Input
Amino acid sequence: MRRYLLVLPLFLLSLLSVLLSPLAQALQALDDASLAGVSGQNGISLETTGGGWSAASVNYSQDGQTLSLKAASSQPQSGSATATTEIDVLGEQLQIEHGSSPSVLSVGNIEMAGSNNSFGSFRAFYTLGASLKLKGGGASGVSGFAVDGSRLSLADVTFYYRDNGFDLIVKGMSFDTYLNNAYVDIVSGGSGAEVKLDLGSSRFVAAIAGIGLDLAHGDPTAGVAVTPSTPDSRDPNASRSFGKLNMDLHLGGSISIGSGGASGEGLRIKPNVTIGSSLFQYQDEGVLRAENFAGTLSSTSGLTLDLEQDGAGSYAKIAFQDLKLNTTLGGLIMGNPANQKLGSLAFDLNFIDQGSKQNWLKLRAGGTSNSGLSGLSADLSWNLANSSVSLTDNGNSLWFSGLRTNGTGQFSLDLSKSCAAGVSPGCYAGSQSDMSKGTYNGHFDGLRLGMSNVNGSYSFDGLRVGSASAPLQGGTELLVLMEIFPAYEFTLNGQLTIQPGGSVGDGLRYNADFYVSEARAAITVDETGKGLWLSGSSYDMHFRDGSLDISNNGVELRKGTYWSKLDVGDVRWGDRVVGTSLGRIMLQRYEQGSTLALSSGGAGALCVGGSDSSAGACASSGGRWEDRGNEGVSAKLKNVFVRDSSIESAVNGVATDEKRNQILWETNRSGGNGTGSQLVIDNFSTSDGDPNNPNANTYGFNADLNLDVAPTKVKIKSGANAGSTVTPDPLGFAVNGRIHFKEINVERLQNVHPTGGAVTAMYGIKAQNADIRTNLTATPIN
Output
């Protein structure tokens, strides 16, 4: 065994020097005299110096297609790079210690052969280290090799991704991988031999101190700074961050890699990875933290990677016939680390091909057509079947059961810049916000996600409380206030552009436009598809200067300036297509300063049917005292509706301004929209109702919701035991709600005839100082 372990380091010398050092050209072959001086007791110490390496092109070719890395190089960050590798044999283990001076890896362009477009370029500053302990014999103990007590690390990483002259900057990044009881074997797979990595009990620790953007220039030929400390000086906003991220993952299971993609050449990866007792945390002013993150990721057929070509050009295709993700976010906290916990949130997601509903991603070079030649675009197809999302609150669980979603669409990702500060290279003019008019081309500063012709749907069967096999029940209707529908079909176009830095500190700011057409949404629906449907709908939404922060109050979404129009062709009762129509509904909203906040911790202890704050006082007032525990989730919605001060456009006496609050109900149509009788609640708005400051409008229309899974009292409605209480108290989906506002104004209530025009029935309507509280618990009927 000693002789075998002495020879093995010499065999690996050239391979290790290439993998662990970018300075391979500085090595010299050992002659016989040098080999005669090698001692197994003392090992080998190898020190290399040099100026790095460069290549005009590094190509990967497969099935006639080529992916090229242009102008690739690895250089020292300063001076001459040094790397030290020590190799020894101790306790029948080959031990390798590697350290190197700081380096920078650059790729000038990532291209698909035959295309003028580019995926962009990148540059990474880093320091590489490794401590490996290897021995012969894989999982079987006969072939392969074992890795134990080993560590691979990347430290002091700053990463730049460049798209059309703009930079995305990842700062303060580090990765540490600890391999324990891991094995590498060559095994027989379904399509031939595979390299299998058994992870044993491994650990992956990662941290990102911040992610920012540099949009100070738009010159694709401008040089990237040669040190990670100077780019912030080019753009004052580059110092702002999306936030900090930390992960500490305990990994097990295995990953297998084999040759051959979905067809022909390519690559196939079969994950069977487990995650246990791990930590995930995003940090802004507050935290989003899962203190016990666990789950599995597995695929029987594997994920395939192929390079292919179609009429639109070359692309890299990732596909999977089956992929199962089961994960639990335990001890979930949103907001202040001292907050009550949400409990645990779990996902059981099953992606599976079903006929024409398939799962694949086609990655193409170049983003949206009017954002330059660099960027990323993708054709996406997905199909999620027989899945669920569950919430466990103080040991009580609720399942959103029978979750299904599928669809196809095109997406693009670019770093973009608007022309708000004047025309300059790389900015994109245009302010048309109505995508239905065909001239929409709005661009904003930031990282832009574009969506084109995304045709999709989702639905879930209903709720199950107590166990995953409990009877289906209603209750999802209670989430419609947050625009979460039990079922939804849609075609989506639009864009979301984000910038680093929230309203305070880290976080993100955003501008967005979404246009939903050919939509059907269920308000309530049963297992046969019958219910109350918003059919033949269109919905366009626009956000300006919004933000998303994690504060001590939880996840805070500020909508900025927001306007939208929901136009429902038919509100149908029964079938979504041919059910009885209740007419057309149109809702327009114009808001400034509206917010949505989510935090961990539900209703806690409360008085049901009364209003007192103690158990004894609650009972005296005729109420029932319930303690729903210290877990759950709380949501606070505030809508600040703004009055439209003048009518800019009108049809038949009804205002049609884009930014206006209005509700329209139309019936008895003889043709299309506008041919029937209408009832219009026009130009409604909120106010603080302050006589000393009549323009004050900050309180808004508020809906406070506390969501819990908790037992409740239920009486038997009929039969021999009618009027008695069900024992034990059944679990249910409990929503404690409060709706409150100071003042709502309606400018006018109009009756509109298709030929006679509008008549104002009421003018100057006010509702003041409402505070409505409700407590609903959805339980199975049986």
Q: What stands out?
A: Confidence is low (pLDDT under 50) at residues 1-28, 219-226, 229-233. Residues 1-82+94-120 form one domain. The first strand starts at residue 44 and ends at 50. Residues 633 and 647 are 42 Å apart (CA to CA).
